[in-house]
Amino acid sequence: MDDLDKIDRALLAALQTDGRMPNAKLAETVGLSETPCARRLKRLENDGFIERYRAVLSRRALGLGVFAFVYVRFAVHDKTLANRFEREVQAIPRILSCHNVAGTADYVMQVVARDLDDYGTFMRDQVRTLPGVTSIESALSLREVKSPGALPLL
User: Fold this and answer.
1) Do 42 and 107 lie in a common domain?
2) I need a labelling partner for 101 at 20 to 30 A (CA). Which of 24, 26, 45, 135 fits?
């Protein structure tokens, strides 16, 4: 982060707002000409500050009305079992994120489903059968107050 100057931070902030911004507009936004802007952008990509570009889709428009936080616990803490669990989780698209955490759970996942019936079936047939899982607790989101947004450029 110390390698970023004011212009780099402005570039990153602008791209977090609109990842499809054309280079000419991006250059204008940060006060550069197009060539130096493109060079800086390429450096930020190469240095790993920008991991990838993607579209943010609407869960509701896609018919995914249920959003849940799922707390997964293991009875046995075995590295091989945890590795298998993590590999299998990677392959399940409706698990949006999965974090290995400290606290009362071993993992916290964000999961989407069409409705409660779909969610129940998914939990029974897929999540409960994952390697190592002995206990699951769900917290259903009633409404999103703040969505994942731009990272702070401290």
Assistant:
1) no
2) 45
